[in-house]
Amino acid sequence: MTLISFVVPAFRVQGYLRECLDSILGQPETDIEVIAVDDCSPDASGDIIDEYAARDQRVRSVRLSENVGLGPARNIGLDRAVGEYVWFLDGDDWLAPECLTEVAERLRVTRPDVLLVDHVRTHWNDTATRSAMAEVFPESPGPGTFRLRERPQAMHLLHTAWNRLVRREFLADLGLRFAPGWYEDVSFSYPVLMAAHRIGVLDRVCVNYRQRRAGAITRTRGDRHFEVFPQWHRVFHLMDSWGSATEALRPAVFERMIWHYLTVLGNGQRIAPELREAFFAQITADYERWLPAGGYPVPDGVEGIKHKLVASGRWRTFSALRAASRARDAARRQARTARRKVGPVARRGARLTRDGLLREYYRAELRRPVDPTLAVYAAYWYRGYSCNPAAIYEDARRLAPGVRGVWVVRRDRVDSVPAGVEYVVAGTPAYYRVLARARWLVNNVNFPDFVRKRPEQVHLQTHHGTPVKVMGLDQQRYPIGAGRMDFAGLLRRVDRWDYSVSANSFSTQMWDRAYPATYTTLEVGYPRNDRLVTASPDEVRRLRAEFGLDPDEQVVLYAPTHREHLPGYRPPFDPDRFVQALGESGRLLMRSHYFHDRDRRPGRPRDWERVRDVSGHQRVEDLYLVADVLVTDYSSAMFDYAVLDRPIVLYTPDWEAYRLARGVYFDVTAEPPGAVASTFADLLDLFRADGVRSDAATKAREHFRARFCTLDDGRAAERVVRQVFLGEPGERSTRC
């Protein structure tokens, strides 16, 4: 028999599900199965589950035709489980490395009905908060087992399904199932403990309980939080049916119920102000209904006062005391902030510099009406006219001619703006004016921190690549690559987004976790790649002629990415030796990352006629179209170029160092878009032997394109314009 069956329900967890499944399947203990249940998730969760099931026989995919909710989805997984123990792990949480070794050993030695394990709350800012395990069990409970009446303090551990493993036969004999609705853990976790004859505790952190910034029910206001009451009613109805077997536990269970109700009520992110009085009244009703005949252990201090106010139904007093407590806490925070401030409070008069005056002008413009016809475009920190914003701008001119598009560019990039394109120079009064009054703000990076998005404005974040390296909040785990990034500031900028463009399902999954906020995802393909799809052979011939490239020459584009952790680093690459390996008909175009545009001083190859530095060329799509082969490393260029279905070579001389220092979302050397060379000598050999076009390389490219390029049909920009500028509904998803 399999030792542990993991049941992993999945609903809107596409950004986290891979980490969850990897944390299970990567454990040293392999006597497991994973039953992953796609609860008709509207995102790519089901596709991710199928992907894992296809490559690991321990994973079983269950896809539901309608959304049933977390509790019923767990039941469906439980019905398919064959393991001796069942572990219900949520799809956005993950296991600690190697924890399963100790868990499995404890299960095999002690054979408990229930094994409780420790966890930490892992927050968006990469900090962790310990659970109450140390307070509940100040001394290690050891490997022995016990009944709940012997150690009722075990009920003070968090009442979730994922911090306990339950013997499957015990659960079947008990006939216990998850109830539908929110707070479904309550009517499962407490009865399981009360009925168990052998409870074990493993005081080792096994679960990382993700504290999501957006999307969790604990951060969702609404009347569904009233569903906590029927869940607790089920607990007491079960106790009534069990009779004297659990009567001694009733006072402790009652105390937990009131504690839980007050916790939900006290969370301002759950109960809206207009619902608080009704919620309190229901607490009082349940207090009167379920109060044990002999009373219960009332907490000391402030918590005890809350219990007494509930017992007497004194909502106004309860509300007033809560308001006073919150005001006192706010005053303390303000006092701490005031003590930290250094220097004069009034800074406006001391900063009447040109920038200060322009910011004042910007604030004044914010008070003027938004221009309903104005759209502002920018790319790469105002480096010019390019990328996804340029493609969207061009389609907006065609499809929404009533929208006036204005570009923001640096003063030294004005010459790069095509004729007929209106622009403003960054830092000028016109720049501040259009930012304050534009209806649409379109960028492939973030606008500066001072920009305030007004309620009438729409912020469209287009991004500028499919991520290989980790991005956003995920960089917190890789401090070398992150440098001095201000993650709190990053989230303030992300909160301005209304729309986020995604090139493929994989990007959508990664943006969900890297940039958690409430924007709408437009999974439509990349607008900048439309041209790669629609370019005619005549356009390609014209471009090659403009670059001075003969039709019969083999043109290779070399485009390495930037290494944030190694400023100025360039992979070992000798252009002279490379063109010699290409043969007489070979030409090399070299393009450095745009981060290097201020310090670009390439060494001049001896054979300059066959090697050209094209780093200054504004439209990278031109370079893709004229190139027969792309050589890159970890750059998003591989995803764009793959749209052309031409050979790609990954040159990865520092893969291990890059992966460890910068962090990556997947192993591009294991799932490449073509041939892979880890040394320069290997790279030369690939071209000498024409390995770039081998059957293996072609098959790898086909697989890569199927995963990342299916949305690039030449209409991505049109889809964005129709939805964002014209207000038309997006194309319907085929998912339920």
Short description:
This protein has 736 residues and is of the alpha/beta class. The protein contains 27 helices and 22 strands.
Task: Summarize the structure in words.
38% of the residues lie in helices and 15% in strands. By secondary structure, it is of the alpha/beta class. The protein folds into 4 domains: 1-216, Spore Coat Polysaccharide Biosynthesis Protein SpsA, Chain A, CATH 3.90.550.10; 220-328; 379-525, Rossmann fold (3-Layer(aba) Sandwich); 534-599 and 607-709, 3-Layer(aba) Sandwich (Rossmann fold). Strands 1, 2, 3, 4, 5, 6, 7, 8 and 9 form a 9-stranded mixed sheet that branches. Helix 13 runs parallel beside helix 15 and helix 14 (387-399) packs across helix 27 (716-724). It is globular, with a radius of gyration of 30 Å. It starts with a strand and ends in a 12-residue tail after the last helix. Residues 341-351, 594-602 and 732-736 have low confidence and may be disordered. Residues 5-174 form the Glycosyltransferase 2-like domain.
Principal-axis shape equals globular
* Oligomeric assembly: single chain
The main pleated sheet reads as:
9 strands, mixed
Q: What is the percent of helical residues?
A: 25-40%
Mind telling me the CATH class of the largest domain? Alpha Beta
Approximately what portion of the residues adopt beta-strand conformation? Answer: 15-25%
Number of strands: 22
Low-confidence stretches: 341-351, 594-602, 732-736
